């Protein structure tokens, strides 16, 4: 058969029944969700007007409590930092146990992966609610919630990075008679370290954002200032809080991006 | 160290029969070159010899020790006396050259005493003289990934020096090097093996290197030894026959 006669592969393949079914289910959920939100032109119009009113009332921002708000923001940032540091430290054993090439036992691997998945699946706000009950209102609850969130995130990504390492340097070290511990910390961890640092920095960014929200349920930080200002209709103070958050979050993202650019 | 391999067999878990009844003996200080087509089981034999892969039949004796019976610490102590140089990626790329050399002593001294940050001044000096021996004394602080392939193989040799090995196993140590770097690394390896009286098992693929460096030549094919002769008595047809399909 000459090249000219040979047919190119079909442009697209008929989706299978399961794909059709999935699409139908997806569309049904989507339409029902849209219906449940009761979207109507009047509501959207009213919403736009209300946002306009909020902006008008909040401007200019009230800077009289800036020092209190600044301190709360600092607490938020520190909550994020402390939570991430402990979270990252705790993530390393979880990651080593749940990576195929460094785990001690398949059963232990399964357990570590399960735990990390549980830490990740439960939203940080829910962790905060649990820890507020456990240790009371204040930043400790927030730190613990961020720690759990960080283990869920870093534990998984660290483990994936560990599984990606080239086995050859580790094998060469084993061949010199090193213990498993020495192979892991001599060959595997040094290879993963830049990526670990990058992931941890990203965790700090993520944690600063979530620490803001954690304050809303009383887990310390600036969130409580925001909810108080909103509940008392002090929109000009609320705007100060929002702008402070904006400045800090952007600064943290810039700084962490810069550091990541230098190490990777 | 005397090595005796008796009726060694290796079948991988997926059913691949990589080694099919190999026997040979290596006296202390003896050098042997191993050749054979791709997939004939050379690397598998090497891995069995350092206990990285458990054989499925036969025995490996090193002096009085039965390698296949060793586990844990005893196996690691034996491995510490066998230096390995592989084709590529022997070293940890993210670490400094001197750190990689120091790791040669890790089997003997453990992790903390060979970590560059905490190693003794004496050990670091020893690492520097190993680097000096392979001609890389001025690159000790360089990141290993920034070295050329030939330099990396020299660092691997320096690490083996640090290890104070009695036997050297080299699996295609120069396969990824250009002809000149290959000759330099082979010269260095042979010199060091000779001056320390170590035994050497070296896998080679390039016939010009075989002609130049081989003393005792072992030809493998499909998991078996086809011949085991002094290199200068080995007829060319027998080598060619190894690679015929
Ligand atoms: N981990 C493994 N699992 C299954 N089969 C393997 C494994 N390692 C090697 N093999 C198979 O065993 C056989 C011998 O492989 P080996 O690597 O020992 O060959 P080799 O002689 O070193 O070849 P080359 O010259 O290409 O390096 C091959 O068929 C290979 O596919
Ligand atoms: Mg090979």
In short:
The complex is a heterodimer of chains A (264) and B (245). Chain A is mostly helical and 264 residues long.
Walk me through what this model shows.
The complex is a heterodimer of chains A (264) and B (245). Chain A is mostly helical and 264 residues long. Helices cover 78% and strands 0% of the residues of chain A. Chain A has one domain (68-263): MetI-like (MetI-like fold, Orthogonal Bundle). Chain A has helices spanning 17-36, 41-58, 66-98, 106-121, 124-135, 139-164, 167-175, 180-214, 223-231, 235-263. In chain A, helix 3 (66-98) packs antiparallel against helix 8 and helix 3 crosses helix 10 (235-263). Chain A starts with 16 loop residues before the first helix and ends with a helix. The model of chain A has no long low-confidence stretch (mean pLDDT 91). Chain B has a domain at 95-162. Chain B has helices at 42-49, 72-79, 97-102, 106-109, 111-114, 121-133, 149-163, 179-195, 207-213, 236-243, and strands at 3-11, 17-26, 31-35, 57-62, 65-66, 82-85, 167-171, 199-203, 216-221, 224-230. In chain B, the strands form two sheets. In chain B, strands 6-7-8-3-9-10 form a six-stranded mixed sheet, sandwiched between helices. A four-stranded antiparallel sheet of chain B has the order 2-1-4-5, covered by helices on one side. In chain B, helix 6 packs across helix 7 and helix 7 runs parallel beside helix 8 (179-195). The model of chain B has no long low-confidence stretch (mean pLDDT 91). Classes of the chains: A mainly alpha (264), B alpha/beta (245). The structure holds adenosine-5'-triphosphate and magnesium ion. Residues 12, 14, 16, 18, 36, 38-44 of chain B line the site of adenosine-5'-triphosphate.
């Amino acid at each position: 058969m000459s090249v000219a006669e040979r047919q190119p592969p079909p442009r697209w393949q008929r989706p299978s029944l399961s794909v059709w079914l999935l699409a139908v289910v997806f569309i049904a959920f989507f339409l029902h969700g849209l219906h449940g939100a009761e979207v109507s032109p009047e509501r959207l119009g009213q919403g736009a007007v209300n946002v306009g009113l909020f902006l008008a009332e909040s401007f200019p921002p009230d800077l009289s409590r800036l020092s209190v708000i600044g301190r709360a923001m600092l607490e938020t940032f520190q909550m994020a930092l402390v939570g991430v540091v402990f979270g990252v430290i705790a993530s390393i054993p979880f990651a080593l146990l749940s990576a195929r090439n460094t785990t001690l036992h398949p059963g232990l691997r399964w357990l570590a992966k399960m735990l990390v998945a549980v830490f990740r699946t439960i939203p940080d706000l829910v962790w905060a609610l649990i820890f507020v009950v456990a240790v009371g209102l204040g930043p400790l609850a927030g730190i613990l919630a961020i720690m759990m969130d960080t283990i869920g995130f870093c534990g998984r990504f660290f483990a994936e990075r560990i599984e990606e390492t080239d086995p050859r340097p580790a094998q060469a070290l084993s061949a010199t008679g090193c213990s498993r511990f020495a192979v892991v910390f001599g060959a595997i961890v040094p290879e993963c370290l830049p990526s670990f640092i990058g992931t941890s920095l990203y965790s700090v960014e993520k944690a600063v954002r979530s620490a803001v929200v954690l304050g809303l349920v009383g887990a310390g930080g600036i969130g409580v200032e925001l909810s108080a200002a909103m509940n008392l209709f002090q929109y000009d103070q609320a705007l100060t809080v929002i702008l402070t958050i904006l400045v800090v979050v952007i600064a943290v993202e810039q700084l962490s991006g810069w550091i990541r650019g230098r190490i990777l | 160290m005397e090595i005796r391999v008796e009726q060694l067999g290796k079948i991988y878990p997926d059913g691949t029969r990589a080694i099919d009844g190999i026997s040979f003996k290596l006296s202390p200080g003896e050098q042997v070159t191993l050749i054979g087509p791709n997939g004939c089981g050379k690397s598998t034999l090497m891995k069995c010899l350092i206990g990285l892969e458990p054989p499925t039949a036969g025995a490996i004796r090193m002096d009085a020790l039965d390698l296949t019976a060793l586990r844990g610490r005893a196996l690691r102590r034996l491995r510490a006396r066998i230096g390995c140089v592989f084709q590529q990626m022997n070293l940890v790329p993210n670490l400094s050259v001197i750190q990689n050399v120091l790791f040669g002593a890790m089997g003997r001294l453990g992790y903390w005493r060979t970590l560059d940050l905490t190693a003794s001044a004496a050990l670091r000096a020893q690492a520097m003289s190993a680097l000096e021996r392979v001609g890389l004394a001025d690159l000790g602080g360089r990141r290993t990934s920034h070295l050329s392939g030939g330099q990396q193989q020299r660092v691997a040799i320096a690490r083996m020096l640090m290890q104070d090995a009695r036997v050297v196993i080299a699996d295609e140590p120069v396969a990824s090097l250009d002809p000149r770097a290959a000759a330099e690394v082979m010269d260095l390896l042979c010199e060091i093996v000779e001056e320390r009286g170590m035994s050497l098992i070296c896998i080679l693929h390039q016939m010009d290197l075989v002609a130049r460096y081989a003393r005792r030549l072992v030809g493998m094919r499909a998991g078996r030894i086809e011949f085991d002769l002094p290199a200068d008595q080995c007829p060319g047809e027998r080598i060619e026959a190894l690679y015929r399909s």
